[in-house]
Every structure is written in C-alpha cells, then in structure tokens.
Amino acid sequence: MSLKTQVESGIKDAMRAKDQDTLRALRAIKSLILLEETKGGASGELTADDELKLLTKAAKQRRESADIYKTQNRPDLLEKEQAELAIIEQFLPKQLTEDEVKAKLQEIITRVGASSPADMGKVMGVATKELAGQADGRVVSTLVKSLLA
What we know:
The protein is mainly alpha-helical. It is about 75% helix and about 0% strand.
C-alpha cells in the first residue's frame, strides 16, 4: 500500500474519530505528496525514496519548530508540533539508537577504508544512503567525526 493511500485512509479515520491533531498532520503529509507529484518534471507517482524524503523533511520541520516553541515558552504550539511529529513518525522507519548507528558507521568506515578525517566525505556519502530515514543526519555527521578523529 502506497503512502498516499495510507494517508487518505488515515484522514477518513481521523475525520470519523474527530481527531483534529491527527487530521492536521495527515493533511500536511497529503499536501506534501500532492505538491511533489505535480511539480514540474515529476512523473506523477512517487517512489518509496521520494516518500521517505518527504516524511523525513516534515518530521525535521516539526522538530525544529518544537525546539523554537520550547525556547520561546509557547507550550500551546509546542504541544501541537509534538502531536503532529508523533503522527508523522508512525509512517517513518524505526529510528536507530546511537549505539546501532555507531556500529553501522564502523562497518561503513571499514568497508570504505577510511582512516582519517579527510575521508569523512566518502563515509558520509555511503552513510547517508544506507541510513536514510533511520538516523538524523546531524547525529550521523557528529559520530563520523568522532570515529575518524
């Protein structure tokens, strides 16, 4: 079942349950999907990679907004962002723990043959492809720096 179908089904269920937070988050995802499908040069269908990128981007936006609302002491808006983030994360693959990411990075470093911080580009290229959607890019970058130092 495609992401679009899952989201549309979820929207119907949220409307029946009168769950405004879920409905708002699912409509935001559907909007992103429709925009991506209709933008210039698009084929009209999204690949699984495209869907993953959209969801990751939406989750990142919610996290950043939540951080801003937290620093500005806006608990009402913070709560909405966190609720939407929880809904979006249901569609994302399971996030790896820091130890799991570190283990995968060790494996990638050995496979690529990296030995110094100068090889960070090689490692990050492979790591971002293999860990897409499973780990935050900032965490991966920080861990790669520490492992190659």
